[in-house]
From TrEMBL:
InterPro entries: Nup84/Nup107. Residues 1-13 have a biased composition (Basic and acidic residues). Part of the nuclear pore complex (NPC). This is Nuclear pore complex protein. GO terms for biological process: mRNA export from nucleus; post-transcriptional tethering of RNA polymerase II gene DNA at nuclear periphery; protein import into nucleus. The keyword Nuclease does not apply. Residues 14-32 have a biased composition (Polar residues). Belongs to the nucleoporin Nup84/Nup107 family. The lineage of its organism: Eukaryota, Viridiplantae, Streptophyta, Embryophyta, Tracheophyta. Functions as a component of the nuclear pore complex (NPC). GO terms for molecular function: structural constituent of nuclear pore. One of its GO terms (cellular component) is nuclear membrane.
Amino acid sequence: MWDAGERLEERKGQTTLVTFPNLSSPGHSGSTKKQDESLLEDVWTFLRAGRLEEACNLCRSAGQPWRAATLSPFGRLDQKPSIEALIKNGKTRALQAIELETGIGHQRRLWKWACYCASERIAEQDGGKYEIAVYAAQCSNLKRILPMCTNWESACWAMAKSWLDVLVDMELARLQPGGNIQFNEEALDQSLEQENGVTQSAMGPDSWPLQVMNQQPRHLTSLLQKLHSIDTVHEVVARSCKEQHRQIEMNLMLGDIPHMLGLIWSWISPVEYHETMFRK
């Protein structure tokens, strides 16, 4: 990313090394906030492109290694602190023991919870939109991601990524003792019937926040329906769903070839043909 490199060069010699997050510190000036917002815009672009390693490297180069740690807390590109990952990344035996004792995926869920709390807290304090989106993307908090998605591709990516992440964590939770009871599909569907204001403890301290689960599509058809809803996505995204190439794309995603062919024929066939068919 040339823009990211140019901005980093401009910041060199001007930015002091930030070794911990303290956004309310007296030294956090307006110009520093602008630099952070510029950095986070580039980080968001990298994450959208699936380039997590470049996003982390950019944070470190900008003197914010702690921010890189929030993106990849278990080292490099490992998103789950397995024992193999901890050993590979030089983590201590104490961390390895914690992961073994607390159960599969426990540390990952703690990280997800922290990202969820960060995205909500920053939003409540009217923080930077890119910082909100970056943290929200790590925990499937669609309510905070979708305002940043002003085109069809971005919104579709956000929903698909969030849905996949939740399904992965559901599978990890099933590997826990009693997981089939605590975190099954029935519990996921029942969560839709509960109010959005339900307490975070409703699913237990280790489970996924209900506020996040309720935002997820339940299947591909549901995902595409959400893309049509202006209550869920940006109005530009909803309008894009009416475009012919998007309709073809969505039918291909569903594998509904007959319906897609019917749509194409209705677009290219002459009006007289439709009038004749109607009279018949």
